[in-house]
Design a protein that fits this description.
The complex is a heterodimer of chains A (229) and B (736). Chain A is an alpha/beta fold and 229 residues long. In chain A, 22% of the residues lie in helices and 24% in strands. Chain A has a 9-stranded mixed β-sheet, with helices on both faces. Chain B has 736 residues and is of the alpha+beta class. Helix content of chain B is 34%, strand content 22%. Classes of the chains: A alpha/beta (229), B alpha+beta (736).
């Protein structure tokens, strides 16, 4: 499997995504510079976390206008799996691949900690290697992860089984303390209608090794590998 | 020479913080010629306490700086130690105290930015940040605002740059009411054959400026950092710089890309005193002259004068000397990262710095006399008188030992700092070891990318000990940092020291400095723990009130096999707890005395360096032999607090066998005797045998398990309740 990680000025989880992809898939990982719309054929694309362009205008807004993103949208429409993590999720909403917006965290503070997620659907190229309802531990690290969308879109996401992950507590229950940012409907990750684009605030690429505190992120990359095999 | 600036009057000289004697020296250096204002400005920053270490140099020279592990000691941008396999750890700690008090967000943010640059200037990719913070009393009306701003500034900068903030400390004391301390540390990793130094060489070689444009911010920052504060310090806000972490991130990546080539001769970041000190240092170290054309300096504002450009402390800038003819190749890298790149001058063999601006020479100064012959003072000092002894019998025992424990775990210095470190991205870069996250171990643990090695990093200081007895406090700060690394299983390598003191012109303050250095020196020697970098921050006084003497120590150790590291939290029930070290029940300067009884008295505990070393070497051997599942050194609050912290970390309780062997119970429970650790093990016989063989005092202390902290004498308190006290204080305070 050959994959690409998009690199914007200010991306800072690009190397982490590269490490995870390389470690789990064993394949080549192309580091795709944002100014270069000429991307080789790849089986999957990761839009990584960080502070693209310093997040100075609005998180992901400037990156959304970079040449490479037009190509990413094209590939997504062709069915290539595209995973946006944290700032990458924000970029994917900016380019319209995913609905909704990520607002400032409800308590207005940056938050970095492990959270528990419930796997809400295994019908996607990112989640087949999890079990339905499985509770996984994955860290968040963001200032703007408060997912918001309009009521009609929310209903659509629910009806079409497009909520990939929800914030829960260790037992899998949706409690107020489990949601780190105030996201609507405890949404941590959503899929597009064709189910080949996933945006999520938590960082699965950070927990792929027991020495780092857990391996619950590995199954996401294993799922992508299985999907493109 | 053009003289477009006002005549140099005694008032102008005084405004620049230059003494009469120093001005005479300037006249001598210039062969009797009167400096112009630009030249005077350059002298003022180069000879400021901040840049010249004129009060501290004499004493800093006494610290041990060598060892087989040391690749580069003090004097460069950061210290460098060997971590094997052709790799090196590069690190330094630096203060940003005054700016952070005046403008907490930008002051703290630019402190982080500055120390990051010190490390990547040397060719190292920064891998983690730590911060030692000291605030005033929680009751002081400014404290909450300062905590909030400093934490947001550190997070805002570090999170955006993408370097994890993995550790640090945060204490409160009224002596910092008008002068907080923000000490930032960065650790980076470099290949030993790709280390870059600042010395310039090769007459004719181009001098290149990269990074942000120069503005009028931060002019006189170094001079401000070298004077006492007073009521009007709010007016100094324009001297605080503004940080741009996005540009810093681009600068790191661009420099890393350039450093992978062979184009660089020398490189130096523009920190305090900006263009002045970077160009002087590079030229001075290489014995060269410099000619700069200030019209080529990228400028953010119109009509900047030579004076302003030379003294600006605009952030995110670097100066480098390139090999001739490589400018265009280098320029392409910086253009890719959308950063300014300008050839601003060249090296000469004149030994002079010549500045041109708008076609005229605006300064012409001899470099060596100015940079190397900067003043050095032997300030008068008086030794701090020894405090009156305090016997354990003079200290009342608590009515309820568990209530006292609850007070301690909820006191500002011991309360959980989760509210702070959850605002820092402590996992970005994907190498922060799970048990080595904030609160998980005595030192933060960061894997060396792509290897099974890890660095252990910590910062520590116990200012109340340093105040009471500086040399004992100096020994203790070094020993405590060494202990923190040891308690994870790491081999301690070296330290960086960030010396925060009051006004050195007062003999009592200078005496604190001299005493602390003396103690540090002894400990560094006894523990083979040299100083490889450091920073001095003096004049930490407001309205004549000095801070507690605070020599913050940042320390780095190495784990050859990261999987052998242990955290401080219990990992299993029914394990045996072993107390390593001598317990005499020392309560002088203890947190029990201060927090429970409201007294700050007595001498600090004695650090016996031979015992310290023996105990630590044993603990490390136990951990390296995989005989311990958790380890925590006994620090502020004493034994009972230590065990409680181990329990709270993972939610497994403990029962302690109260066997004080003649020591009064409250001294045994809360005393702060040094050189001690608590180890959890499933193989107590092996650990006790190793201790006996090493001649180290060890005592079976109890067992892990249950959901409470329980004493064999019958008292107990639920862990959940203690944890809620410990976790509750800071969020409640900040919500205040």
């Amino acid at each position: 499997m050959k994959s690409a990680v998009i690199v914007f000025p200010g991306s800072n989880c690009d190397r982490d995504a590269q490490t995870a992809l390389r470690d789990v898939t064993g394949g080549e990982v192309v580091m795709q510079w944002h100014g270069d719309a000429d991307m080789p054929d790849v089986d999957a694309i990761v839009v990584p976390g960080g502070f693209s362009y310093g997040d100075y205008l609005r998180c992901g807004a400037i990156a959304g206008n970079s040449p490479v993103m037009r190509e990413v949208v094209k590939r997504a429409e062709m069915g290539v799996p595209v995973l946006g993590i944290c700032n990458g999720f924000q970029v994917l909403t900016e380019v319209g691949l995913l609905p909704g917006v990520l607002m400032r965290n409800a308590d207005l503070k940056f938050v970095c900690r492990d959270v528990f997620l419930r796997v809400e659907t295994t019908t996607s190229p990112f989640t087949t290697q999890y079990t339905p309802g499985q509770v996984i531990k994955v860290p968040v690290a963001h200032h703007d992860g408060n997912y918001v969308t309009d009521a009609d879109t929310l209903k659509l996401l629910q009806d079409q089984d497009r909520v990939a992950f929800r914030y829960v507590d260790a037992t899998g229950a949706r409690t107020p303390g489990a949601n780190p940012n105030g996201a609507m409907d405890d949404i941590a990750g959503v899929l597009n209608e064709k189910r080949n684009v996933l945006g999520m605030m938590p960082h699965p690429e950070r927990l792929i090794d027991q020495v780092l505190g857990g391996t619950d992120g590995r199954a996401m990359f294993e799922s992508v590998l299985a999907a493109v095999a | 020479m053009s003289e477009t600036t006002p005549e140099i009057t005694p008032e102008i000289i005084a405004e620049h913080g230059i003494s009469k004697d120093e001005y005479q020296k300037i006249l001598e250096i210039l062969d009797g010629r009167t400096p112009n204002r630009t030249e005077l400005g350059i002298f003022s920053v180069m000879w400021s306490e901040h840049c010249s270490y004129k009060s501290s140099k004499k004493w800093l020279k006494t610290l041990p700086t060598e060892g087989p592990q040391v690749i580069c000691g003090p004097g460069e941008n950061a210290g460098i130690v060997d971590i094997g396999d052709g790799q090196a750890a590069v690190f330094k700690m630096e203060s940003h105290n005054h700016p952070s008090y005046i403008e907490p967000y930008q002051g703290a943010a630019t402190g982080v930015g500055g120390i990051l640059r010190d490390v990547f200037t040397m060719g190292a990719r920064p891998v983690c940040n730590l911060n030692a913070l000291r605030f005033g009393s929680p009751d002081h009306p400014k404290t909450r605002h300062l905590v909030s701003g400093v934490v947001a500034g550190i997070g805002g900068y570090g999170n955006c740059v993408g370097v994890p903030t993995v550790g640090g400390e945060c204490d409160f004391h009224e002596s910092y009411n008008g002068n907080i301390l923000v000490n930032a540390m960065t650790v980076g990793i470099a290949d030993t054959d790709k280390i870059f130094y600042s010395a310039a060489s090769g007459a004719g070689n181009p001098i290149v400026y990269v990074g942000s444009k120069t503005g009028r911010d931060g002019i006189h920052g170094a001079t401000m950092a070298s004077a006492e504060f007073s009521e009007d310090n709010e007016e100094k806000r324009p001297t605080v710089q503004v940080g741009d972490p996005f540009t810093e991130k681009l600068l790191i990546e661009a420099c890393m890309e350039l450093m992978a080539t062979d184009m660089i001769v020398g490189i130096q970041d523009m920190g305090a005193a900006g263009l002045t000190s970077s160009s002087f240092e590079m030229a001075s170290k290489g014995g060269m002259g410099v000619e700069l054309d200030l019209d080529q300096v990228p400028q953010r504002e119109a009509d900047m004068t030579a004076y302003e450009m030379m003294l600006s402390e605009s952030q995110e800038r670097m100066l480098m000397v390139l090999k001739p003819g490589r400018e265009d190749e280098a320029r392409k890298i910086f253009e890719k990262w959308e950063l300014d790149f300008a050839v601003v001058g060249h090296l000469t063999d004149s030994g002079h710095m010549v500045l041109r601006h708008k076609g005229e020479i605006v300064a012409d100064l001899p470099i060596d006399p100015l940079a190397l012959a900067s003043p050095e003072y032997d300030r008068p000092w008086v030794a701090t008188p020894d405090p009156a002894p305090l016997n354990v019998d003079d200290v009342p025992a608590p009515n309820d030992p568990m209530a006292a424990l609850n007070t301690l775990v909820g006191c500002p210095d011991l309360a959980s700092k989760r509210w702070i470190w959850e605002q820092y991205d402590h996992m970005v870069m994907g190498d922060t070891i799970g048990i080595g996250r904030p609160g998980g171990a005595d030192a933060a643990l960061v894997r060396v990318h792509g290897t099974k090695k890890a660095l252990a990093v910590t910062s520590d200081c116990t200012p109340r000990y340093c105040k009471a007895k500086p040399n004992e406090g100096g020994r203790q700060v070094v020993a405590e940092a060494w202990r923190n690394l040891t308690a994870t299983g790491a081999t301690p390598l070296a330290i960086t020291d960030n010396m925060n003191f009051g006004n050195p012109e007062k003999p009592e303050i200078m005496g604190q400095f001299v005493g602390c250095i003396e103690g540090m020196r002894e400990a560094c020697l006894a523990l083979d723990f040299p100083v490889v970098s450091g920073n001095v921050s003096l004049y930490n006084e407001t309205n004549g009130q000095a801070i507690l003497p605070t020599p913050t120590i940042g320390a780095v150790g190495l784990l050859v096999d990261a999987s052998k590291a242990v955290g401080l939290g219990f990992t299993a029930t029914d394990e045996t707890l072993i107390l390593i070290g001598e317990t005499e029940g020392h309560l002088g300067q203890s947190l029990y005395l201060r927090e429970v009884l409201g007294r700050e008295e007595g001498p600090p505990p004695h650090v016996d360096l031979a015992t310290e070393r023996k105990n630590g070497d044993l603990v490390r051997a136990v951990i390296q032999g995989r005989l311990a599942s958790a380890c925590h050194d006994i620090a502020g609050g004493g034994l009972l607090v230590t065990v409680t912290e181990m329990a709270m970390s993972t939610g497994i309780g403990a029962e302690i066998t109260v066997d004080t062997q003649g020591v009064p119970v409250h001294g045994w429970l809360y005393g702060e005797d040094q050189g001690r650790y608590v180890v959890a093990t499933s193989n107590p016989d092996a650990v006790m045998a190793m201790a006996m063989a090493a001649g180290v005092r060890a005592q079976i202390l109890g067992r892990t398990g249950g959901d409470a902290i329980a004493l064999s004498s019958g008292e107990s308190m639920p862990l959940a309740s203690l944890k809620s006290t410990n976790e509750g204080w800071l969020p409640a305070y900040m919500a205040g």
